Amino acid sequence: MSPETFTPEINPAGTFTQIYSLFHELMTGLSEKEKDVLDRLARLEMEEKRLIDRYRAIKQFSDRLWEVANVCEILFNISDERKICEIVVKFLSRLYPVSRVRFLYANSGRNRMRLVAASPPVAGEEDRCAVYPMDCLALKRCRPLICTSPEKEIFCSELKEVAPTQGYLCLPLMGGGSVFGCINMVIDHREGLNEPALDENALKIIDIFTTYVSLIINNNLLMKTVRREAMTDRLTGLPNRRYVLEVLQTEIFRCERYGNVFSLALLDVDTFKSINDNYGHDEGDRVLMLIADTASRCLRKVDTVARYGGEEFLVILPHTGLQAAVTVIERFRKIFNQQTFSDFLNVKNVTLSAGLAEYPTDSNDGPTLIKIADERLLRAKRAGRNKVVWE
Q: What is the CATH number of domain 75-230?
C-alpha cells in the first residue's frame, strides 16, 4: 500500500479502533521499507569499506613493487657483492621496520655459511645459522621457510629460540643450479596477536625481491667468471696479455699521482723451440706451468706475473727500483733453473733470460717500457742466454 495513494475511508460512525488499525498498518509498511533501505545502505557501506581497503592494499603493493624495481635497478649496476648484500638488508629493514634482516652467504667451497650483512646489527648472533649449507632446511629444500605463528611446529633448530615470540622467514638464494646464500628475517609479532606483522602481500613482495636479488648476484658472479676467463691464460692459470696491460696502465697512473717508481721484467724461456721439437709440446707446456709455479713461490702478492705470449712472461714489480728488481728476477731465474732438475720435467737445466725497465727512469709510457725491456731481453739472448740485462 503506497502512502501517496492511501486514502482512508472513515465511516462517520466508525470507531477509534478502526482509525488506529489503519494508522498502524500504514506505519508498519513504512518501517519494513525503511528497514530494507537501511539494510541495503549498511551492505553498501560494508562493500565500500571493502573496496577502499582493497584499493589501499593494491596501492601499497604497487608502491612496494615500484620501490623494489628501483632498488633492483641500482643493484644491477653494482659489482661488489658485499655492497649488494648491505643494500638488500637495509632496504628490507626500511621497508618492514618490524623485522631484523640478515644476509648469509656460502663460502667458495659451499661448506660454510657466513654472515655478510645485517640490519640492525646483530651483536652476538654472528654464528647463528653459520652452518654447513645442507643443514639449513630452507637451502636443502630450495624453498622459503616461513614460520608465522608460535603455535605452529618449529622446523628450524637454529631459530627455535626466537620462534615462540617472533616469526621468521628464511629465503634461499639460488643461481646456476645451486644455492649460494640465504636471507633471514626475524619479525616481531603484532601487539596482542600471535602472528607476524606481515600480510600476504608483504610476503609476496619479499619473495619477488629475493628472486631478483638471486638473479642479480648470480649475474654478477657470471660476469666476473667471464671476465676472469677472458683475462686468464688457461694453461698456466696466470693473467694473460690483456689483463697485464691493464695492470701496467693502472700502475703508471698510480705512480704519476703519488710519485712512486716500479719496474717490469720481460722473461723468455731459452731454446724453447728445441724443447718442443725434441720432447714434444706437452713437455713445453709443463715448462710453462713450472714458471707459473715458481712465480707463486718467489714473487710478492702485490707483484703481477702474466703470460705475455708464447714462452714470454711479463712481471710488474710495484714500489720496486731497478736494482731491487734485478735481485728479485735473478733469484727467480735461479730458482726456476733448480726446479727444472726435478722429476716434473723430462728435459733438464732449462734456463731463462730477462730484460728489465724502470718507470719513470727509462720511460713514463707503458708500451715504451715493454719495448725497452724487450730490447734488453734480446741482448741477454745474444750474450749467451741465462742472463738478466737491465741497462
A: 3.30.450.40
